[in-house]
Each structure stands twice: as C-alpha cells, then as structure tokens.
C-alpha cells in the first residue's frame, strides 16, 4: 500500500528568494545579492515549526513525554502556534502562556489548533510568562519543553535550516542575518555555516531601546536563553520599531513578500549590511507571514 507524506513532512525545505527592488540599484552596483529564506511557507506559518517538531519528537524518543500528556510553554506567538499544530498531530494537550498584548490572530490560530491559552499582563512581558510556566510545572500541571533552554531547538536548525541555506546558495553565502528571540535559529544555523566556512559573518537583529517588535528580544541577563552562544554571533544590529514596520510594508508592496515585523527587521538589517559590503551574498530569515499581524495596524486597512 502506498504511503503518503503527513503534515510533519511538509516542515522545512523552504524556498530562498532574491529581493528584486528594495535596495536593487545599490546592491547591483556593489555586486551584492540579498536573499530571504521563506519560513512562512511551513505548514503552521513560521520558522518555529522546525523547533516545535524537533522538541516534541525528541522528547518522545527519550520517553520524557507520551501522547495524552499536557505540554506547557510560554510563547510570544509563533512557537505556540507551531507547538499547537504538532500537539494536535501527535495527541497532546497544549497549554500556552502568552502576554495579552500580542496579536489577536496569533491567539485565534493557537485556539484553532486546539490549544488552551493563559494570557498574562502586558507589563510582565515574556519574562512573567516564562516564570508562570515554570510555576505550573512545579505544581505538576504538565511538562514544559522550554524553547529557551532546549538544545533540540538549535539542533534542528543545525541539521536542516543551515544545510538548506548552504545548498541553496551553492556555498556562496557570506552573511547570515536573523532576528533574535529564543536564539535557536541563529545559534543552530551559525554553527553549521561556520563549519562549512569560518568566514561567514553572522549578524543578529535586536530591538532598539523602546521598541517592542514581536519575535525580536533583548533579554535581561537573568532571562538570557540558555541555548544562546554569544561567540557564534559576530555582530548585533539594533533595529527600531518604525524601521521594522516600514520595511514590512515595503516588502509587501515592493516585493510581494508579505512578512511579519521581526522578518522585516531582519530584512532592514540585511540592507544595512549590504550598504557597506561588496560582492556579498546576504541571507536573512523571513521567519513568518504578515497575515498574523493584520490587527496590529502595521499594514494599511
């Protein structure tokens, strides 16, 4: 009997596409190419699909969890959506803790996958959500996968995302740009790329002072993700909320690339890198799609 792929098999192997208009004249003059890795093409709509499947699948392999268990996770949105999708496929109860000010679309999508939500005060941010998740685990209410400390998060990017980028650029990549949240993507991809070519520059996008960009964080020291390896990142570039939101609108209207705000922040950083380099192949992560930000007012009504 013929076997067919499942939704799990649709995760990864996302396209890499060249920007055609934004910064085109300057990039052409300098011999640069700027490429976006379309992680919004994953089935639950973001780069976090990779980590969600990796964390659940490997926890099952170790016997840490089994179908029917309750999984708990603090999330700003994309990881929660991805975990809700994988939990639905594999038969887990998913309990997600999320700051109340994040977009309506994200909360609705999590619920559509069958997850239960606990909304925390905006003032506490993700730090409070993470603390609450740990308290609930201590109370015996479930198992936390902990995307911030779980090595299965960066591991999947070392095993899949990095190799895909290397292959898609035929090894020509010179700069890799990623928004930094849990830091799983940048940590795993940088490890792989550095093994192929130690000269590849790794650039992280972080929010400028006062900016609140979903998916991009600058953590207080005590909340720094345990999976983060600072030595794997060559440069941190600060991006303002205004610049990220403006770039999101430009990506949609000039490139036909409807992406989220953190993806646009990474694109803005990639353009800053391109403005100072020559003969560079710059790859940035388009970590999700713009349709889960429509209620924020970033895009024209």
From TrEMBL:
It is an enzyme of class 2 (transferase). Keywords: Amino-acid biosynthesis, Cysteine biosynthesis, Pyridoxal phosphate, Transferase. Residues 7-288 form the Tryptophan synthase beta chain-like PALP domain. It comes from the Bacteria. SUPFAM superfamilies: Tryptophan synthase beta subunit-like PLP-dependent enzymes. GO terms for biological process: cysteine biosynthetic process from serine. Pathway: Amino-acid biosynthesis; L-cysteine biosynthesis; L-cysteine from L-serine: step 2/2. Its cofactor is pyridoxal 5'-phosphate. Its EC number is 2.5.1.47. The modification N6-(pyridoxal phosphate)lysine is found at residue 48. GO terms for molecular function: cysteine synthase activity. It holds the Pfam family PALP. Pyridoxal 5'-phosphate binds at residues 78, 181-185, 262. Coiled coil: none annotated. It catalyses: O-acetyl-L-serine + hydrogen sulfide = L-cysteine + acetate. Belongs to the cysteine synthase/cystathionine beta-synthase family. NCBIfam families: cysKM, cysM, PRK11761.1. This is Cysteine synthase.
């Amino acid at each position: 009997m013929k076997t067919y792929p499942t939704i799990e098999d649709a995760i990864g192997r996302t396209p890499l596409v060249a920007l055609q208009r934004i910064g085109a004249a300057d990039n052409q003059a300098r011999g640069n190419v700027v490429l976006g890795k379309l992680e919004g093409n994953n089935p639950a709509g973001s780069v976090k699909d990779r980590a969600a499947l990796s964390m659940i699948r490997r926890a099952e392999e170790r016997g840490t969890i089994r179908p029917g268990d309750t999984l708990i996770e603090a999330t700003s949105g994309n990881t929660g959506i991805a975990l809700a999708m994988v939990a639905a496929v594999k038969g887990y109860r998913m309990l997600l803790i999320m700051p109340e000010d994040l977009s309506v679309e994200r909360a609705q999508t999590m619920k559509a996958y069958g997850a239960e939500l606990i909304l925390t005060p905006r003032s506490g941010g993700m730090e409070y959500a993470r603390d609450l998740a740990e308290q609930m685990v201590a109370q015996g209410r479930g198992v936390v996968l902990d995307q911030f400390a779980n090595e299965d998060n960066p591991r999947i990017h070392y095993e899949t995302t990095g190799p895909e980028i290397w292959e898609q650029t035929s090894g020509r990549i010179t700069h890799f740009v990623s928004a930094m949240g849990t830091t799983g993507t940048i940590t795993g991809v940088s490890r792989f790329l550095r093994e192929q070519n130690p000269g590849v520059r790794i650039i992280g996008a972080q929010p400028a002072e006062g900016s609140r960009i979903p998916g991009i964080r600058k953590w207080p020291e005590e909340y720094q993700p345990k999976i983060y390896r600072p030595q794997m990142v060559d440069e941190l570039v600060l991006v303002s909320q205004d610049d990220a939101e403006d770039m999101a609108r430009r990506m949609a209207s000039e490139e036909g690339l409807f992406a989220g705000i953190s993806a646009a922040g990474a694109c803005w950083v990639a353009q800053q890198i391109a403005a100072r380099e020559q003969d560079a192949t710059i790859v940035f992560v388009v970590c999700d799609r713009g349709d889960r930000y429509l209620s924020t007012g970033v895009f024209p009504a």
